[in-house]
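Q: Convert this sequence to structure tokens.
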Amino acid sequence: MISRAAWVGLLGLGLSGCGSPAFRISDGSNVDAYVVRTSAGPATAANPAGLRFKPGVCEASELKPEGRALNEGHIIEFLNRQQLDVRVERPRTDLIYLVVSGAGTDVPVRLRVAVLKGADEAATELHNALLQHGPGAWGVRRSNLAVLGQTGTLEDDLTFAAKTRLSCWGMFMTAGRDDTYAVPGGYREL
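A:
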């Protein structure tokens, strides 16, 4: 498990996995196939409020909250079931990257996975990481796992999360200018 001090240390390392160039959805997929806007005005990375994953993006069985502690194997298994190629990189024992290919992006997408003590800590750490990275940063969390995604446009982030079903596996969050936003319609924890 990554301690709070180790997680903060990871954030200060320049985050090579999340500092990678932005990815783009290049297979012609459009965010409108997965997301609806529920309020007037355009949603932007600085103000993503008013977005919701469409009904049917997730199956009801996927949305059941997780009560047990998880490890990186759970998300790897989930991504493999989506028929995605997942390569694991472990530069240190407390640092896990998943490099995901096969989801319609122009480059593989690198995800940083933190295994924490509990759901509250995972929520707090993902929130703080998203604020540090600012608009365009996104991630998902489920139980005690926090997954920070590679930065893209809001549309590409949402499309990638929906196509890979990460929005069904974990609670999708994105960074605005000075707060983080959960996009409803997918997995959620109370």
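The chain has five helices and nine strands.
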